[in-house]
Write a structure and sequence with these properties.
Blueprint: H1 14-24, E1 32-35, H2 45-60, E2 64-69, H3 79-92, E3 100-102, H4 107-119, E4 123-126, H5 130-135, H6 154-165, E5 175-178, E6 193-197, E7 211-213, H7 215-226, E8 230-234, H8 241-250, E9 258-262, E10 266-267, H9 274-282, H10 297-303, H11 307-317, E11 325-326, H12 328-342, E12 345-346, E13 348-349, E14 352-357, E15 366-368, E16 384-386, E17 389-393, E18 413-416, E19 421-429, E20 435-443, E21 460-461, E22 463-465, E23 470-477, E24 504-512, E25 524-527, E26 531-535, E27 545-552, H13 557-564
Parallel strand pairs: 1-2, 2-3, 8-9, 10-11, 12-25, 14-20, 18-21, 23-27
Antiparallel strand pairs: 4-5, 5-6, 6-7, 13-24, 14-17, 15-16, 17-22, 18-19, 19-20, 23-24, 25-26, 26-27
Helix pairs in contact: 2-11, 7-8, 11-12
Bound molecules: adenosine-5'-triphosphate and magnesium ion (MG).
């Protein structure tokens, strides 16, 4: 976890320590970072960790951060993702200003660097097939074998490379390889492929190129071109660092960025890999990338997570090199912490049971004026109408209550929050024998705020007037996966086996307090006793609002019960 000695100072972790040292020693005048997603999917909560590290450190150390798309693979990339990613980063609260770049902006420069390597004898055109290259690469225990083309003269390689660019060859006919060391214990250093032929249209450069640079070649050089000082990436790139450094050392790089790796975020009960998320979307397990059960930034946004909760979460999990599996409750607690402070309160009955207060006049309506927020009087009050017929939560009534049951039961009294104490006189059943209505009496002396000393009513339940309510649909969510690490028990790692098929519960008869604030489109509400809810921006219709439960009030029901009594 991050620790900071003063609230004004940035949190301390090993990367921030390195940055601070480099700035203090004068190694760098100012910090330059980048966030480099590949536009082949939407961003997830793992990316938020990287966004917060790259954009966050730039902000803390008064440096700059480039928003750079790593668009070197024209086959998998789509414009839709570019737009979605920008929206997500902006939503997180970060700005790139004029520093929106694409690796493809640098294709010409990268090509020049490649020629430079060839001329120095540090790269050659390989004419073996991809299959042959793979076969001769060796294994972790065996060295690779030199290609017969490894020692072809640099002029020949240069000519071939220029012809590759000019479109003279078919896909796969040749590739450009770095000439490093086929016996290196690090397989990444065994003459890695730098360029390949791909006769496809690129979303930004169109038909201009038919050769495309590979990730390792592109990444470090793009960093150097942008003047990145600290290139922060996840641990799987640790083995690529020697190659990153080799490339920068062998060309005339405008600057030498330093690659530093940190551990990825893994969250239990979900998957965080674009490949897997795409599968969930394409196979219809979820309604889309922004399904509120998805741990994508768009899913979390639609579910009601405020960006401040995501930032708090990233701060809390911190940055280190150790592998970690974070419990979902850590993220949920961050949302609770933020939302408890900001959310206006409302009452909503999810599964209604009609209550008739037989001694309350039929034509009467009185209004209660509870605070929108119990600790924030400045947020003002709301108007909650009360009438002879109301709805209470079906689950707040038990015909045969267990001992110490404080909610409602035959012959028992309960307090209606903000209103009166009522007593259950009679239970009405429908033709199937199910409880369909309660007949009760209220005690006018117990009006909320009045002194009712000596009266022992332990239970307080929420309610909504049956004369005056808004009918809404509420969607309750559970984890998308039943197992902490989806696929971990399957020999094939098939994560789809562990899908929780009950991860959504749709309730369409919910009754909400009528005076829903005009801010319903942007605010997350606390439905008292139930949780935090956000109006679904996509599925809400003009006459039927849909609410997503962002998060429950507490981790467990028991705690809620204890707290209330
Ligand atoms: P995925 O495995 O989900 O497809 P990726 O690493 O291929 O992710 P990129 O678009 O390449 O996705 O990621 C952009 C940046 O976000 C990279 O610097 C990457 O290291 C970082 N990143 C991706 N996933 C995580 C994660 N789970 N935790 C922290 N950083 C991450
Ligand atoms: Mg990637």
């Amino acid at each position: 976890m991050n620790k900071s000695n003063s609230p004004d100072l940035p949190a301390i972790d090993f990367i921030r320590s390195i940055i601070r040292e480099d700035l203090e020693s004068g190694k760098h005048q100012s910090l330059v970072t980048r966030f480099p997603p590949e536009p082949n999917g939407h961003l997830h909560i793992g990316h938020a960790k990287s966004i917060q590290l790259n954009f966050g450190t730039a902000e803390e150390f008064k440096g700059i951060c480039f928003m750079r798309f790593d668009d070197t693979n024209p086959l998998k990339e789509e414009e839709e993702y570019v737009e979605g990613i920008l929206e997500d980063v902006k939503w997180m609260g970060y700005e790139w200003k004029e520093r929106l770049t694409y690796a493809s902006d640098y294709f010409e420069k990268l090509y020049e660097f490649a020629e430079e390597l060839i001329k120095k004898g540090k790269a050659y055109v390989e004419s073996q097939s991809a299959e042959e290259i793979r076969r001769t690469r060796g294994t972790l225990t065996e060295p690779g074998i030199n290609s017969p083309y490894r020692d072809r003269g640099f002029e020949e390689s240069l000519t071939l490379f220029r012809q590759m660019r000019a479109g003279k060859f078919d896909d796969g006919a040749h590739v450009l390889r770095a000439k490093i060391d086929m016996t290196s214990p690090n397989i990444n250093m065994r003459d890695p492929v730098l360029y390949r032929i791909r006769k496809v249209i690129h979303q930004r450069t169109g038909k201009k190129w038919c050769i495309y640079p590979l990730y390792d070649f592109t990444h470090g050089l793009s960093d150097a071109i942008e003047g990145v000082t600290h290139s922060l990436c996840t641990l799987e790139f640790e083995d690529h660092r020697p190659l990153y450094e080799w490339i920068l050392a062998e060309v005339t790089a405008p600057c030498i960025p330093r690659q530093i790796e940190f551990s990825r975020l893994n969250l239990l009960h979900t998957v965080l890999s674009k490949r897997k998320l795409i599968k969930l979307v394409e196979d219809g397990y979820v309604s889309g990338w922004d399904d509120p059960r998805m741990l994508t930034l768009s899913g979390l946004r639609r579910r009601g997570y405020p960006p401040s909760a995501i930032r708090l979460f990233c701060e809390r999990i911190g940055i280190s090199k150790s592998e970690n599996n974070i419990e979902m409750s850590v993220l949920e607690n961050c949302a609770r912490e933020i939302l408890d402070k900001t959310s206006p309160r409302l009452m909503c009955v999810l599964k209604p049971l009609k209550v008739v207060i037989t001694n309350y006049p039929e034509d009467k309506t009185e209004n209660f004026h509870p605070a929108k927020h119990p600790k924030k009087p400045e947020m003002g009050t709301r108007k909650v109408p009360f009438s002879r017929e109301i709805y209470i939560e079906y689950e707040d009534f038990r015909e045969d209550p267990p001992p110490n049951y404080f909610r409602f039961a035959p012959g028992k009294e309960v307090r209606l929050r903000y209103a009166y104490v009522i007593r259950c006189d009679k239970v009405i059943y429908d033709s199937t024998g199910r409880v369909s209505e309660l007949h009760c009496t209220y005690d006018p002396k117990t009006r909320s705020g009045a002194k009712t000393e000596g009266r022992k009513v332990k239970g307080i339940i929420h309610w909504v007037s049956a004369k005056n309510f808004i009918q809404v649909e509420v969607r309750l969510y559970d984890r998308l996966f039943a197992k902490p690490i989806p696929g971990s028990d399957d020999p094939e790692g098939n994560f789809l086996n562990d899908i929780n098929h009950n991860s959504i519960d749709i309730l369409s008869e919910c009754k909400l307090e009528p005076e829903i604030m005009t801010s319903a489109n942007k605010e997350v509400f606390q439905f008292e006793r139930i949780g935090y809810f956000f109006k679904d921006p996509k599925d809400s219709l003009e006459d039927t609002m849909v609410f997503n439960r962002t998060v429950t009030l507490r981790d467990a029901w028991e705690k809620l019960e204890q707290e209330q009594h």
